[in-house]
Amino acid sequence: MGRPMGRPTLFRTAKQMKAFAKLGVIFGAAIVLSGCSTLAGLSNGGVILDVPKIEQEILNSFTKQGTEIETVECPSSMTGVTGDSWLCVATDPWNFSVNVRVTMTSSDGFVEWRVEN
Fold first, then answer.
1. Over the stretch 63-107, which tens digit does the pLDDT of each residue have?
2. DSSP string, the chain
């Protein structure tokens, strides 16, 4: 007859469940992860940010907190002025993801990021 009907299995391993729980804690807390100076250049539209550096710094912040993240994807071009923000997505090895809001906090390209609800 096959498998009895019921709720599908969400996690295959305890490690997946633990990773999801960590993302849930981070997601619920909406904490500031970190910040860094990411100036890559200047244009008429403002400061050109170093996107690969931002993605790596966000990944490093999650890793330092003990959360396994496989990828961080930000817009391919981030040019702006103080106060502008962009949405990035951090994804773990099991395809759970959280939105990370990156905000430029100064005209020299310093940015901060936080997990969004």
1. 888 888 999 999 998 888 999 999 999 999 999 999 999 999 888
2. --SPP-PPP--SSHHHHHHHHHHHHHHHHT-EEEEEE-EEEEETTEEEE-HHHHHHHHHHHHHHTT----EEE--S--EE-TT-EEEEEEE-TTS-EEEEEEEE-STT-EEEEEE--
